[in-house]
Amino acid sequence: MGKTLNIAPVSRIEGHASVTIQLDDSGNVEDARLHVLSLRGFEKFVVGRPVEEVCRIVNRICGICPWQHHLASNKAADQCLGVTPPPTGRKLRELCQMLAYIPDKILHFYFLAAPDFVLGPDADYSVRNVVGIVGAAPDLAKKVVHMRYKSQMMLEKFAGKVIHPMAAVVGGYSRPMLEEERKELLQGVLEFKDFALFTMKFAREEVFPKYLDAVKTLGVFPSGYIGTVDKEGALQLYDGELRLQSADGKIEQFPYSEYKNHIGEHIEDWSYLKFPYAKNWGQLKLDENDPVGVYRSNCLARINVCDKMATPLAQEELEIFRKSFGRPAHLTLLYNWARLIELVYCAERAEELLNDPEITGRDIRATNIEPKAGEGFGCVEAPRGTLIHNYKTDENGMVTMANLIVGTTHNNAAMNLSVKQAAKAVIKDGKYDQGILNRIEMAVRAYDP
Questions:
Q1: Which residues have CB under 8 Å from 118's CB, separation 6+?
Q2: Which of 11, 219, 379, 393 has an alpha carbon within 20 to 30 A of 371's alpha carbon?
Q3: Is 257 in contact with 377 (CB distance < 8 Å)?
Q4: Does 258 carry a binding-site annotation?
Q5: Is 96 among the domain residues?
């Protein structure tokens, strides 16, 4: 008779999930699913609240990327109340977005993904973790911990809170940046840029080449992609238009206020997580050999959909990447490579913003903000993917409807297909061990869910 394998919990991810693998009578994979039990309650929690309070509530959705929820919510609230932040207020928001990205990238590559690549996917689980990394490369580990701590503390010192922030406000930002703060932040960002370039070179030349066989076989299937670009097609993380790219490279580009015309939301009874899909490609079909409507978000998706990077050093890395893997690149484990290209971009973009004369301006927030009925759409690129907040308010500025599509949610269908493909690739005739099951986890881990 068939057998069911359970991987519970999936390790080294930011949250809770499990994988169920169903084997047939011959011991081969019949089906595999990723189960997510996270509460989808925030869409109801915020109904009946003043819209300006929502940006201080939804940042509790995630302790890893609260800044992105905070910023997307503020952008949606701006639209509901019909206000536009002045340039300095907008740039301070974007700077916080960049500064929040840097420790997030360091966390995933060095703490969550690296044990599989540095210690190997077959290493015993008792050492295949960040403690094992410390033992294998103590000097590097010390530097990594220092850089992540410093990046978090820089953001906290300027914005007040690095987790569950309240610095951005409807209409702009809560306070101006002082010149001495700008100089201190710039000095730190230049250090992060050097570290980002070191990490990119280290990974590209010493880490990833050892595991190209795994990269080419685990979780691989063709799909579409979603990300944000500017009018010139360059990657953007704070603002721009959404771009959906089909598996064969065809493009749909639209303002994020039109997301409902392009993205549908499907529900399955075995997951609490929604299944977004591209409406214009057909009804969602969860088949790794013939997926319909499936697209992916997050860093690999962003560098697939963009025509170029908006900063020079990141552009050089994108060119190296595309020379090796083409466009669009469908290999799931390449998320780990794409993530580091974005780390370089974030450091460069933060440097640009801190050298912008407007960043220390005093006009930071729109004035004369009054409650009103309206609808708002807020969208930023969270580390885990495109993040959409959509609210409606009544004449008193109270929220009457909220819909959210979170970065990981966009990847739900894709993660399930990656798990199924990886399981079929590594489990044959009922034979499996710890290393084989970890390879299936690697297909999930690459998405940084």
A1: 133, 136, 137, 207
A2: 379
A3: yes
A4: no
A5: no
DSSP 61: S
- What residues contact 56, with CB distance under 8 A and at least 6 apart? 70, 166
Determine what percent of the chain falls in helix, strand and coil, rounding each to the nearest 5. Answer: 50, 20, 35
Task: Give the separation between CA 351 and CA 277, rounded to whole angstroms.
Answer: 36
Residue 65 labelled as part of a binding site: yes
Domain count, the chain: 1
Residue 432 lies in a domain: yes
Would you say 184 is a known binding-site residue? no
Distance of CA 137 to the CA centre of its chain: 27
DSSP labels for 202-254? HIIIIIGGGGHHHHHHSS----EEEEEE-TTSBB-SSSSEEEEE-TTS-EEEE
Least confident of 168-182, 281-295, 399-413: 281-295
Q: Which domain holds residue 443?
A: 1-37+424-449
For 191-228, what is each residue's pLDDT tens digit? 999 999 999 999 999 999 988 888 999 999 999 999 99
Which helix (H) or strand (E) segment is 439 a member of? helix 434-445
Residue 433 within a domain: yes
Residue 407 · residue 430 · CB < 8 Å: no
43: annotated binding-site residue? yes
Give the tokens for residue 384: 């885990």
* Within a domain: 210: no
Quick one: which of 18, 22, 16 has its CA closest to 8? 18
Contact 268, 282 (CB under 8 A): no
pLDDT digit string (tens) for 244-258?
A: 999 998 999 999 999
